[in-house]
Amino acid sequence: MTGVTTTRETLLGCLSVPRWADEVLAGQPYDDRAALLAAADAAARALSDAELDQALAAHPRIGERGGARSQREQAGVDPTAGDTAPRLAAGNAAYEQRFGRVFLIRAAGRDAPAILAELERRMGNDDAAERAETVDNLRQIALLRLEEVLS
């Protein structure tokens, strides 16, 4: 039986962090999909500040849909609905002012009111708590994307 493998390019498309991709690749071949996802999960939990910045650079702001993948992930956010666009713009700006980085959330499965509520809640975090939440959301996004390409 051959194991489950992936490519560096595929991994970097899920999370733009070379160390993460290299750690996942180093464990190949995996016995099954679950083992590959578990390795990806573990490697994504320990992002350095530089890796966090690098990963965030590959993500558009919520409400500013990037490529096809980001558009699918943000499908529940209709920036043309009501006051969604100005609220997201104001929230993104306030977040960036407060934390010095783009607001990132796993948007898949969430609508604009849920995202705005999370943004508001997270504005109350201290720097350490918010960094941890950002890393966790990056991990969730990476795993969702990896599951998608493995399917």
From TrEMBL:
Its EC number is 4.1.1.97. Residues 58-86 are annotated as: Disordered. GO terms for molecular function: 2-oxo-4-hydroxy-4-carboxy-5-ureidoimidazoline decarboxylase activity. Residues 61-72 have a biased composition (Basic and acidic residues). InterPro entries: OHCU_decarboxylase (IPR018020), OHCU_decarboxylase-2 (IPR017595), OHCU_decarboxylase_sf (IPR036778). It comes from the Bacteria. Pathway: Purine metabolism; urate degradation; (S)-allantoin from urate: step 3/3. Keywords: Decarboxylase, Lyase, Purine metabolism. It is an enzyme of class 4 (lyase). Pfam families: OHCU_decarbox (PF09349). Residues 7-147 form the Oxo-4-hydroxy-4-carboxy-5-ureidoimidazoline decarboxylase domain. One of its GO terms (biological process) is purine nucleobase metabolic process. It catalyses: 5-hydroxy-2-oxo-4-ureido-2,5-dihydro-1H-imidazole-5-carboxylate + H(+) = (S)-allantoin + CO2. SUPFAM superfamilies: UraD-Like. PANTHER family: 2-OXO-4-HYDROXY-4-CARBOXY-5-UREIDOIMIDAZOLINE DECARBOXYLASE-RELATED (PTHR43466). This is 2-oxo-4-hydroxy-4-carboxy-5-ureidoimidazoline decarboxylase. The lineage of its organism: Bacteria, Bacillati, Actinomycetota, Actinomycetes, Propionibacteriales.
